[in-house]
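To close the chapter, one final illustration. This time we ask the reader to focus less on the individual chains and more on the assembly as a whole: which components sit near each other, and how the overall shape emerges from the parts.
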Amino acid sequence: GAVVSQHPSRVICKSGTSVKIECRSLDFQATTMFWYRQFPKQSLMLMATSNEGSKATYEQGVEKDKFLINHASLTLSTLTVTSAHPEDSSFYICSARDAFTEGLNNSPLHFGNGTRLTVT
Amino acid sequence: SQQGEEDPQALSIQEGENATMNCSYKTSINNLQWYRQNSGRGLVHLILIRSNEREKHSGRLRVTLDTSKKSSSLLITASRAADTASYFCATGLPNDYKLSFGAGTTVTVRA
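The assembled structure is written out below.
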């Protein structure tokens, strides 16, 4: 089955530093990847849609200069949390669709295992 | 934005019992999907049901969809301790490739 690898699984950083999270589709190509944020015992909040070769589309209220997204290839998207602050501490999850074989609609999302970010 | 709402928020059952959770949504959909999330992990796709389908099965899972009531249910039969997880419904809207997730139902299966 389609596998999405997300790295790192946990990261602790100091306030003011930047953190990069990688999301890779291992056995399929993903023109579109999605980045979510999840607070404890809550649902997933879509932050942005990452498009290969073009700018990401951010959801309302998400600062694009704070959460930099790069989707340089069909198998890799990165999320960089810049100048991290304690309020950025959260669980970040990426997902992707196998757009070529499954299409964009009526197809499941394949998720990474998430990154627990703690900013001290 | 969140479209789906799961009910109940939490469910505790004995191993071997069935677990039923419901999802209601607000607008017309293309499809509805159910996902499972184990604590501290990503989501795993369970089943997808299209808007023109009424029922779907996958192993011990049974999903129904009632578009007239804008609701879906997920039934897990003969539950096991390994079924302990949070379950989310997600709706795919027409002409929109994004999914909108509900708040989830936390299921605890007691051994």
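The interface with chain B takes residues 4, 6, 32, 34, 41-44, 46, 49, 91, 93, 95, 97, 104-114, 116 of chain A (CB under 8 Å). The first strand of chain A starts at residue 4 and ends at 7. With these observations in hand, you are ready for the problems at the end of the chapter.
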